[in-house]
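# step 3/5: fold
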Amino acid sequence: MFSVRLEEIIEERGITKEDLAKGLGLKDCSMIYRWIKSVHVPTLSSANAVANFFNCSLDYLAGRTENFEHVKAQELKPFGTQLRKVIEKAKISQNNIIKNLNISTHSIVSWLNNKTIPNFSSVIKLANYLNISIEELVGRE
């Protein structure tokens, strides 16, 4: 859904893919085309940069809401810290996440220890499983 939303919002705002690439600090628009064609899944950092560029929520970009709310640009908090917080609040074990989402133990441990951050599709899966907004999951609320 990210690819569809990205293409829609580019058209609605009347900007070029080149303008977006420049606004995101990319050297050219090839990555924008890969996102739109669903050839490449954006990183969480890239998705956040797009949300900040358009002043919208990550949930909107992910197609989890139809409501385009203007959201102030925000930096991401350490993903592992946020993930640990929402897991504890939901009282869900790491093992349940691994089992139910088919995510490797290595990935979860790396995320929880702030060694790596997931791509945007993994963040969407986590938010859906935890039944929370992506904004809450990544600390943008």
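# step 4/5: annotate
Residues 2-13 form the longest helix (12 residues).
# step 5/5: archive (pending)
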